[in-house]
């Protein structure tokens, strides 16, 4: 029985290693700079005038490698594969201790209703070098979307993730 057990354990280990080695390439996407990304400022302004119809909860974790305190200015934009976009020009507020090392900040954000979110970018300017760990967007009608940074964001460029390619064809039927 002992040898049967160890054989099973061996195959189980092989299975686990195989499963994990297959999922690692999916979960280790690194954020990228996107020089051509421009948030739609018009959309933000009209949203403020009352055409906004969806609310989102954005949870941002600040890395434990980040400075203890930051005066950096931080903006956020995310959206879906169909052109619906949410843009939040400024999230930072050093006076309330936002984005301190190892902290979690929660924001209620309003904007157009989106289909599943497939891109998210952060924009940082300042001298402190704030380091996010992750950004999660909660919406009422879809699974929350989490984007893992764990890295320094260069100054003055939209920096993040775009998984939208191929998204439209594979989700059209299930999303609608
Ligand atoms: C950069 O942003 C543009 C505009 O949203 C998008 O079309 C493009 O695919 C993005 N580039 C990358 C490399 O994700
Ligand atoms: C920006 O948003 C406005 C208002 O929703 C829309 O009319 C316009 O087409 C958008 N522009 C782009 C480039 O997506």
From TrEMBL:
Pfam families: ATS3 (PF06232). Residues 31-50 are annotated as: Disordered. The keyword Protein transport does not apply. Coiled coil: none annotated. Keywords: Signal. InterPro entries: Embryo-specific_ATS3, PLAT/LH2_dom_sf. Residues 1-21 form the signal peptide. SUPFAM superfamilies: Lipase/lipooxygenase domain (PLAT/LH2 domain). This is Embryo-specific protein.
